[in-house]
Specification:
This protein has 191 residues and is mostly helical. Helices cover 71% and strands 0% of the residues. It has ten helices and no strands. The relative contact order is 0.11.
Length: 191
């Protein structure tokens, strides 16, 4: 594996192990088997390496969403919502790199989302438009509907991560699914 990729892989591991606050280029270099100066040959600084980690994390997130094969748009949305919460639970460092860290790769509302720079939100918007065309969701702005779902899930994920839920994983996922149904009902979901 080339040194740059090895450093990036070790950076993701370091994020997973230490979190953003204690993320250390020195620790990444040690884990990659290179000197700290070698890290700087491939990444200008901590922020540059975190941005690369963000891009890599987004690729993992996009692959998770790409694995959803549901034909019905509301089923796809439900599965995507569950996948988001599972991503937060299973890959907290990657989740942070995608949705918590301020790097040069995060998407900003509204311009980036309107321009389709968030592939996952673009897919959600497409599914919402399909559901609206089928009469399964009420008419309305599909981007705002997607943002409502995302805000609900992100809030639940961050509350979980801050220790606000005393429940088993499946119970928590069930709560998240019920909250998604509340949002979908608010958007006029019909079975």
């Amino acid at each position: 594996m080339p040194a740059k990729q090895r450093i990036l892989t070790c950076a993701l591991d370091e994020l997973q192990r230490s979190g953003v606050e204690r993320f250390s280029l020195r620790a990444v270099g040690v884990a990659a088997g290179v000197t700290p100066m070698a890290v700087y040959r491939h990444y200008r600084n901590r922020e540059d390496l975190l941005a690369a980690a963000g891009e890599e994390a987004f690729a993992v997130w996009k692959a998770r969403i790409g694995a959803i094969k549901a034909a019905h748009p509301l089923d796809w949305l439900r599965q995507a919502c569950r996948s988001y919460v599972e991503f937060a639970l299973d890959e907290p460092a990657l989740f942070d790199a995608c949705f918590v860290l301020r790097t040069s790769v995060e998407r900003l509302y509204p311009a980036d989302f309107i321009a389709g720079k968030s592939p996952v939100i673009a897919l959600a918007v497409k599914r919402i438009e399909e559901a609206q065309a089928q009469g399964k969701l009420a008419p309305g702005d599909p981007l705002e509907a997607a943002m409502s779902l995302w805000a609900q899930l992100h809030g639940l994920a961050m509350l979980h991560r801050s220790g606000r839920f005393a429940m088993k994983r499946e119970d928590y996922l069930g709560l998240c699914a019920r909250c998604v149904e509340l949002v979908l009902t608010g958007l006029g979901a019909r079975r």
